[in-house]
Design a protein that fits this description.
mainly alpha; two-stranded antiparallel sheet; two-stranded antiparallel ribbon; 11 helices; elongated
Protein backbone atom coordinates (compact mmCIF):
# COMPACT_ATOMS: atom_id res chain seq x y z
CA UNK A 1 0.00 0.00 0.00
CA UNK A 2 2.86 2.38 0.80
CA UNK A 3 4.40 1.74 -2.64
CA UNK A 4 1.08 2.44 -4.34
CA UNK A 5 0.66 5.63 -2.33
CA UNK A 6 4.20 6.80 -3.19
CA UNK A 7 3.62 6.06 -6.89
CA UNK A 8 0.32 7.94 -6.87
CA UNK A 9 1.92 10.95 -5.20
CA UNK A 10 4.80 10.85 -7.68
CA UNK A 11 2.41 10.85 -10.64
CA UNK A 12 0.50 13.79 -9.15
CA UNK A 13 3.74 15.67 -8.55
CA UNK A 14 4.92 14.98 -12.11
CA UNK A 15 1.64 16.35 -13.44
CA UNK A 16 2.14 19.42 -11.26
CA UNK A 17 5.72 19.95 -12.47
CA UNK A 18 4.91 19.43 -16.18
CA UNK A 19 1.47 21.02 -16.22
CA UNK A 20 2.43 23.82 -18.65
CA UNK A 21 5.52 22.55 -20.47
CA UNK A 22 3.98 19.21 -21.47
CA UNK A 23 0.96 20.60 -23.39
CA UNK A 24 3.09 23.30 -25.03
CA UNK A 25 5.63 20.80 -26.36
CA UNK A 26 2.87 18.25 -26.99
CA UNK A 27 1.22 20.59 -29.52
CA UNK A 28 4.29 20.36 -31.77
CA UNK A 29 5.03 16.70 -30.98
CA UNK A 30 8.24 17.49 -29.09
CA UNK A 31 7.14 15.84 -25.83
CA UNK A 32 8.66 12.33 -25.81
CA UNK A 33 6.27 9.46 -26.42
CA UNK A 34 6.92 6.42 -24.23
CA UNK A 35 7.36 3.00 -25.78
CA UNK A 36 4.18 1.83 -24.04
CA UNK A 37 2.04 4.44 -25.84
CA UNK A 38 -0.59 3.33 -28.30
CA UNK A 39 0.02 3.19 -32.03
CA UNK A 40 -2.48 5.99 -32.53
CA UNK A 41 -0.45 8.31 -30.25
CA UNK A 42 2.74 7.53 -32.13
CA UNK A 43 1.10 8.14 -35.53
CA UNK A 44 -0.43 11.40 -34.24
CA UNK A 45 3.00 12.53 -33.04
CA UNK A 46 4.50 11.84 -36.48
CA UNK A 47 1.75 13.89 -38.10
CA UNK A 48 2.50 16.73 -35.69
CA UNK A 49 6.17 16.57 -36.70
CA UNK A 50 5.29 16.79 -40.40
CA UNK A 51 2.87 19.70 -39.90
CA UNK A 52 5.36 21.58 -37.71
CA UNK A 53 8.18 21.27 -40.25
CA UNK A 54 5.76 22.27 -43.02
CA UNK A 55 4.84 25.48 -41.15
CA UNK A 56 8.50 26.25 -40.48
CA UNK A 57 9.43 25.85 -44.14
CA UNK A 58 6.33 27.72 -45.34
CA UNK A 59 7.47 30.72 -43.33
CA UNK A 60 11.21 30.56 -44.04
CA UNK A 61 11.51 29.73 -47.74
CA UNK A 62 8.98 32.16 -49.30
CA UNK A 63 10.15 35.00 -47.02
CA UNK A 64 13.76 34.40 -48.00
CA UNK A 65 12.75 34.38 -51.66
CA UNK A 66 10.92 37.68 -51.15
CA UNK A 67 13.98 39.24 -49.50
CA UNK A 68 16.50 38.20 -52.16
CA UNK A 69 14.40 38.01 -55.35
CA UNK A 70 11.72 40.66 -55.01
CA UNK A 71 12.51 43.27 -52.36
CA UNK A 72 15.01 46.02 -53.22
CA UNK A 73 14.73 48.31 -50.19
CA UNK A 74 17.52 47.46 -47.73
CA UNK A 75 15.59 48.71 -44.70
CA UNK A 76 12.63 46.48 -45.52
CA UNK A 77 15.00 43.58 -46.14
CA UNK A 78 16.51 44.13 -42.73
CA UNK A 79 13.03 44.30 -41.24
CA UNK A 80 12.29 40.83 -42.60
CA UNK A 81 15.52 39.30 -41.32
CA UNK A 82 14.19 39.22 -37.74
CA UNK A 83 11.36 36.74 -38.44
CA UNK A 84 13.67 34.69 -40.69
CA UNK A 85 16.39 34.41 -38.02
CA UNK A 86 13.84 33.60 -35.32
CA UNK A 87 12.19 30.91 -37.44
CA UNK A 88 15.55 29.41 -38.47
CA UNK A 89 16.85 29.19 -34.90
CA UNK A 90 13.62 27.65 -33.61
CA UNK A 91 13.73 25.20 -36.51
CA UNK A 92 17.15 24.10 -35.23
CA UNK A 93 15.97 24.01 -31.60
CA UNK A 94 12.93 21.91 -32.56
CA UNK A 95 15.11 19.43 -34.46
CA UNK A 96 17.44 19.14 -31.46
CA UNK A 97 14.51 18.42 -29.14
CA UNK A 98 13.31 15.65 -31.44
CA UNK A 99 16.79 14.14 -31.73
CA UNK A 100 17.18 14.22 -27.93
CA UNK A 101 13.83 12.60 -27.19
CA UNK A 102 15.48 9.59 -25.50
CA UNK A 103 17.60 11.81 -23.26
CA UNK A 104 14.54 13.89 -22.37
CA UNK A 105 12.63 10.73 -21.47
CA UNK A 106 15.55 9.52 -19.33
CA UNK A 107 15.59 12.84 -17.50
CA UNK A 108 11.86 12.65 -16.86
CA UNK A 109 12.27 9.10 -15.55
CA UNK A 110 14.93 10.28 -13.11
CA UNK A 111 12.65 13.07 -11.88
CA UNK A 112 9.76 10.65 -11.41
CA UNK A 113 11.95 8.17 -9.55
CA UNK A 114 13.14 10.96 -7.25
CA UNK A 115 9.54 11.88 -6.52
CA UNK A 116 8.75 8.23 -5.70
CA UNK A 117 11.66 7.76 -3.26
CA UNK A 118 11.57 11.26 -1.75
CA UNK A 119 10.82 11.86 1.90
CA UNK A 120 8.25 14.47 2.85
CA UNK A 121 11.01 16.99 3.50
CA UNK A 122 12.59 16.32 0.10
CA UNK A 123 9.21 16.49 -1.61
CA UNK A 124 8.83 20.04 -0.32
CA UNK A 125 12.21 20.93 -1.84
CA UNK A 126 11.31 19.34 -5.18
CA UNK A 127 7.92 21.01 -5.21
CA UNK A 128 9.28 24.48 -4.42
CA UNK A 129 11.70 24.28 -7.37
CA UNK A 130 8.99 22.83 -9.64
CA UNK A 131 6.81 25.81 -8.74
CA UNK A 132 9.52 28.16 -9.99
CA UNK A 133 9.82 26.16 -13.24
CA UNK A 134 6.04 26.40 -13.76
CA UNK A 135 6.17 30.16 -13.34
CA UNK A 136 9.06 30.39 -15.78
CA UNK A 137 7.33 28.55 -18.62
CA UNK A 138 4.03 30.36 -17.99
CA UNK A 139 5.67 33.78 -18.04
CA UNK A 140 7.68 33.00 -21.17
CA UNK A 141 4.57 31.68 -22.94
CA UNK A 142 2.47 34.73 -22.04
CA UNK A 143 5.12 37.22 -23.16
CA UNK A 144 6.00 35.35 -26.37
CA UNK A 145 2.43 34.70 -27.49
CA UNK A 146 1.29 38.18 -26.44
CA UNK A 147 3.94 40.07 -28.41
CA UNK A 148 4.26 37.58 -31.27
CA UNK A 149 0.59 37.24 -32.11
CA UNK A 150 0.14 41.02 -32.06
CA UNK A 151 3.01 41.24 -34.55
CA UNK A 152 1.45 38.61 -36.82
CA UNK A 153 -2.16 39.82 -36.66
CA UNK A 154 -2.50 43.42 -35.48
CA UNK A 155 0.36 44.97 -37.50
CA UNK A 156 -0.62 43.61 -40.95
CA UNK A 157 -4.32 44.32 -40.33
CA UNK A 158 -3.61 47.90 -39.24
CA UNK A 159 -1.71 48.56 -42.47
CA UNK A 160 -4.81 47.77 -44.47
CA UNK A 161 -4.68 47.44 -48.24
CA UNK A 162 -1.83 49.24 -50.01
CA UNK A 163 -2.22 50.66 -53.51
CA UNK A 164 1.07 50.95 -55.42
CA UNK A 165 1.82 53.69 -57.99
CA UNK A 166 1.09 51.08 -60.65
CA UNK A 167 -2.50 50.80 -59.30
CA UNK A 168 -1.84 47.34 -57.82
CA UNK A 169 -3.62 46.50 -54.56
CA UNK A 170 -1.50 44.66 -51.98
CA UNK A 171 -2.85 43.09 -48.82
CA UNK A 172 -0.03 42.69 -46.26
CA UNK A 173 0.79 39.26 -44.88
CA UNK A 174 2.37 38.80 -41.43
CA UNK A 175 5.61 37.94 -43.28
CA UNK A 176 5.80 39.10 -46.92
CA UNK A 177 6.33 36.09 -49.15
CA UNK A 178 7.11 35.34 -52.76
CA UNK A 179 5.79 32.26 -54.55
CA UNK A 180 6.97 31.63 -58.08
CA UNK A 181 3.85 29.82 -59.30
CA UNK A 182 1.29 31.17 -56.81
CA UNK A 183 -0.26 34.63 -56.51
CA UNK A 184 -0.49 35.22 -52.76
CA UNK A 185 -2.76 38.26 -53.20
CA UNK A 186 -5.67 36.41 -54.78
CA UNK A 187 -8.47 34.95 -52.71
CA UNK A 188 -8.57 32.41 -51.14
CA UNK A 189 -4.76 32.17 -51.40
CA UNK A 190 -4.25 35.25 -49.26
CA UNK A 191 -6.60 34.12 -46.50
CA UNK A 192 -5.10 30.61 -46.39
CA UNK A 193 -1.54 31.95 -46.26
CA UNK A 194 -2.48 34.47 -43.57
CA UNK A 195 -3.89 31.74 -41.34
CA UNK A 196 -0.95 29.41 -42.01
CA UNK A 197 1.57 32.12 -41.11
CA UNK A 198 -0.27 32.81 -37.87
CA UNK A 199 -0.18 29.07 -37.16
CA UNK A 200 3.55 29.09 -37.91
CA UNK A 201 3.86 31.81 -35.27
CA UNK A 202 2.09 29.54 -32.78
CA UNK A 203 4.59 26.79 -33.56
CA UNK A 204 7.61 29.11 -33.17
CA UNK A 205 6.42 30.45 -29.82
CA UNK A 206 5.60 26.93 -28.63
CA UNK A 207 9.18 25.83 -29.33
CA UNK A 208 10.61 28.88 -27.54
CA UNK A 209 8.34 28.49 -24.51
CA UNK A 210 8.72 24.71 -24.41
CA UNK A 211 12.52 24.68 -24.68
CA UNK A 212 12.85 27.32 -21.94
CA UNK A 213 10.35 25.47 -19.76
CA UNK A 214 12.04 22.10 -20.28
CA UNK A 215 15.44 23.58 -19.44
CA UNK A 216 14.00 25.19 -16.32
CA UNK A 217 12.32 21.93 -15.26
CA UNK A 218 15.55 19.91 -15.50
CA UNK A 219 17.93 22.52 -14.12
CA UNK A 220 15.74 23.40 -11.15
CA UNK A 221 15.29 19.72 -10.33
CA UNK A 222 19.08 19.43 -10.35
CA UNK A 223 19.17 22.40 -7.95
CA UNK A 224 16.77 20.48 -5.69
CA UNK A 225 19.07 17.47 -5.77
CA UNK A 226 22.01 19.70 -4.83
CA UNK A 227 20.03 21.16 -1.91
CA UNK A 228 19.32 17.64 -0.69
CA UNK A 229 23.04 16.84 -1.04
CA UNK A 230 23.86 19.75 1.27
CA UNK A 231 21.41 18.37 3.86
CA UNK A 232 23.04 14.94 3.60
CA UNK A 233 26.48 16.46 4.18
CA UNK A 234 25.28 18.34 7.23
CA UNK A 235 23.63 15.19 8.58
CA UNK A 236 26.89 13.25 8.24
CA UNK A 237 28.27 14.67 11.49
CA UNK A 238 25.13 15.80 13.27
CA UNK A 239 25.75 13.24 16.00
CA UNK A 240 29.14 12.51 17.59
CA UNK A 241 28.38 9.04 18.91
CA UNK A 242 27.46 7.38 15.60
CA UNK A 243 28.77 3.92 14.92
CA UNK A 244 31.33 3.31 12.16
CA UNK A 245 28.73 1.42 10.16
CA UNK A 246 26.31 4.35 10.28
CA UNK A 247 29.03 6.81 9.20
CA UNK A 248 30.07 4.55 6.32
CA UNK A 249 26.47 4.23 5.15
CA UNK A 250 26.03 8.00 5.18
CA UNK A 251 29.27 8.56 3.29
CA UNK A 252 28.24 5.96 0.74
CA UNK A 253 24.82 7.62 0.40
CA UNK A 254 26.48 11.00 -0.24
CA UNK A 255 28.83 9.56 -2.88
CA UNK A 256 25.97 7.75 -4.62
CA UNK A 257 23.85 10.91 -4.58
CA UNK A 258 26.74 12.96 -5.99
CA UNK A 259 27.27 10.43 -8.76
CA UNK A 260 23.56 10.52 -9.57
CA UNK A 261 23.60 14.31 -9.76
CA UNK A 262 26.64 14.28 -12.05
CA UNK A 263 24.91 11.82 -14.39
CA UNK A 264 21.68 13.82 -14.38
CA UNK A 265 23.53 17.07 -15.11
CA UNK A 266 25.47 15.37 -17.91
CA UNK A 267 22.17 14.31 -19.44
CA UNK A 268 20.86 17.89 -19.08
CA UNK A 269 23.94 19.21 -20.85
CA UNK A 270 23.36 16.82 -23.75
CA UNK A 271 19.79 18.10 -24.12
CA UNK A 272 20.23 21.81 -23.55
CA UNK A 273 23.68 22.83 -24.79
CA UNK A 274 22.72 23.42 -28.43
CA UNK A 275 19.20 24.57 -27.56
CA UNK A 276 20.77 27.24 -25.35
CA UNK A 277 23.24 28.11 -28.11
CA UNK A 278 20.46 28.64 -30.66
CA UNK A 279 18.49 30.74 -28.16
CA UNK A 280 21.54 32.86 -27.38
CA UNK A 281 22.24 33.49 -31.08
CA UNK A 282 18.57 34.17 -31.74
CA UNK A 283 18.20 36.41 -28.67
CA UNK A 284 21.31 38.45 -29.45
CA UNK A 285 20.19 38.99 -33.07
CA UNK A 286 16.56 39.77 -32.25
CA UNK A 287 17.29 42.20 -29.41
CA UNK A 288 19.49 44.11 -31.85
CA UNK A 289 17.09 43.96 -34.82
CA UNK A 290 13.90 44.65 -32.87
CA UNK A 291 15.61 47.61 -31.22
CA UNK A 292 16.35 48.91 -34.73
CA UNK A 293 12.70 48.37 -35.73
CA UNK A 294 11.57 50.40 -32.72
CA UNK A 295 13.85 53.28 -33.77
CA UNK A 296 12.49 53.11 -37.35
CA UNK A 297 8.85 53.14 -36.24
CA UNK A 298 9.55 55.91 -33.72
CA UNK A 299 10.93 58.07 -36.54
CA UNK A 300 7.78 57.26 -38.56
CA UNK A 301 5.56 58.28 -35.58
CA UNK A 302 3.85 54.86 -35.60
CA UNK A 303 2.90 54.50 -31.93
CA UNK A 304 1.08 51.17 -32.36
CA UNK A 305 4.06 49.54 -34.08
CA UNK A 306 6.41 50.93 -31.43
CA UNK A 307 4.23 49.39 -28.70
CA UNK A 308 4.07 45.99 -30.42
CA UNK A 309 7.80 45.91 -31.15
CA UNK A 310 8.51 46.95 -27.56
CA UNK A 311 6.46 43.96 -26.38
CA UNK A 312 8.46 41.68 -28.69
CA UNK A 313 11.68 43.22 -27.38
CA UNK A 314 10.65 42.44 -23.81
CA UNK A 315 9.77 38.86 -24.84
CA UNK A 316 13.12 38.25 -26.56
CA UNK A 317 15.06 39.78 -23.68
CA UNK A 318 13.11 37.78 -21.12
CA UNK A 319 13.66 34.44 -22.91
CA UNK A 320 17.44 35.02 -22.90
CA UNK A 321 17.32 36.21 -19.29
CA UNK A 322 15.45 33.09 -18.15
CA UNK A 323 18.09 30.73 -19.54
CA UNK A 324 20.87 32.80 -18.00
CA UNK A 325 18.98 33.01 -14.70
CA UNK A 326 18.45 29.27 -14.31
CA UNK A 327 22.10 28.78 -15.25
CA UNK A 328 23.01 31.21 -12.46
CA UNK A 329 20.83 29.25 -10.01
CA UNK A 330 22.77 26.11 -10.87
CA UNK A 331 26.09 27.92 -10.35
CA UNK A 332 24.92 29.24 -6.96
CA UNK A 333 23.75 25.80 -5.80
CA UNK A 334 27.06 24.25 -6.83
CA UNK A 335 28.90 26.91 -4.85
CA UNK A 336 26.77 26.17 -1.78
CA UNK A 337 27.59 22.45 -2.13
CA UNK A 338 31.30 23.23 -2.42
CA UNK A 339 31.21 25.35 0.73
CA UNK A 340 29.22 22.76 2.65
CA UNK A 341 31.70 20.00 1.74
CA UNK A 342 34.57 21.61 3.65
CA UNK A 343 32.55 23.52 6.28
CA UNK A 344 31.05 20.45 7.96
CA UNK A 345 32.41 19.35 11.33
CA UNK A 346 34.75 16.78 9.80
CA UNK A 347 36.95 16.76 12.93
CA UNK A 348 34.29 14.70 14.70
CA UNK A 349 35.10 11.78 12.40
CA UNK A 350 37.83 9.20 12.69
CA UNK A 351 40.93 9.43 10.50
CA UNK A 352 39.68 6.69 8.22
CA UNK A 353 36.42 8.52 7.62
CA UNK A 354 38.22 11.85 7.23
CA UNK A 355 40.13 10.41 4.30
CA UNK A 356 36.82 9.38 2.74
CA UNK A 357 35.78 13.03 2.66
CA UNK A 358 38.61 13.91 0.25
CA UNK A 359 36.72 12.40 -2.68
CA UNK A 360 33.48 14.11 -1.62
CA UNK A 361 35.19 17.51 -1.36
CA UNK A 362 36.93 17.03 -4.72
CA UNK A 363 33.65 16.14 -6.46
CA UNK A 364 31.80 19.01 -4.75
CA UNK A 365 34.33 21.58 -5.96
CA UNK A 366 34.07 20.51 -9.60
CA UNK A 367 30.73 22.14 -10.45
CA UNK A 368 28.63 21.38 -13.53
CA UNK A 369 27.36 24.44 -15.40
CA UNK A 370 24.68 25.09 -17.97
CA UNK A 371 26.60 25.73 -21.19
CA UNK A 372 25.60 27.00 -24.61
CA UNK A 373 27.33 24.75 -27.11
CA UNK A 374 30.23 24.05 -24.69
CA UNK A 375 31.39 27.60 -25.35
CA UNK A 376 29.40 30.06 -23.23
CA UNK A 377 28.43 29.65 -19.58
CA UNK A 378 24.81 30.53 -18.91
CA UNK A 379 24.85 33.06 -16.08
CA UNK A 380 23.75 36.60 -15.31
CA UNK A 381 27.19 37.85 -16.36
CA UNK A 382 26.59 36.27 -19.79
CA UNK A 383 23.18 37.98 -19.99
CA UNK A 384 24.89 41.32 -19.40
CA UNK A 385 27.41 40.55 -22.15
CA UNK A 386 24.61 39.62 -24.56
CA UNK A 387 22.79 42.90 -23.92
CA UNK A 388 26.00 44.90 -24.41
CA UNK A 389 26.72 43.04 -27.65
CA UNK A 390 23.18 43.60 -28.94
CA UNK A 391 23.31 47.34 -28.21
CA UNK A 392 26.70 47.54 -29.91
CA UNK A 393 25.33 45.90 -33.07
CA UNK A 394 22.29 48.21 -32.89
CA UNK A 395 24.53 51.29 -32.96
CA UNK A 396 26.36 49.86 -35.99
CA UNK A 397 23.05 49.32 -37.82
CA UNK A 398 21.90 52.85 -37.10
CA UNK A 399 25.11 54.28 -38.54
CA UNK A 400 25.39 51.98 -41.56
CA UNK A 401 21.79 51.59 -42.79
Amino acid sequence: MENISALTKAEEDMKYATRFVKPILGVVGAWPVSSSSSSFSKILTRIEHILTYFLFLLLMVPTLMHVFLKETNNKIRLKLMGPIINCSMQFCAYTILLCRANEIQNGLNVIKQDWITATEENRLIFRSKAKIARRVVLTVAITMYGGGLCYRTVLPLLKGTIVTPGNVTIRPLPCPSYFVILDEQKSPNYEILFVLQVMAGFVIYAVISGSCGLSALFVLHACSMLSILVDKMKALVDTRDMSDTMVQRRIMDIVEHQTKIKGFLKNIETITQYVCLSEMICGTSLVCLVGYYIVMEWENNNATAVLIYSTIQISCTFSVFILCYIGQLLVDENRIVGQASYMINWYYLSRKHMRSLILIIAMSNYPMKLMAGKMVEMSLATFTDVMKMSMGYLNILRNVI
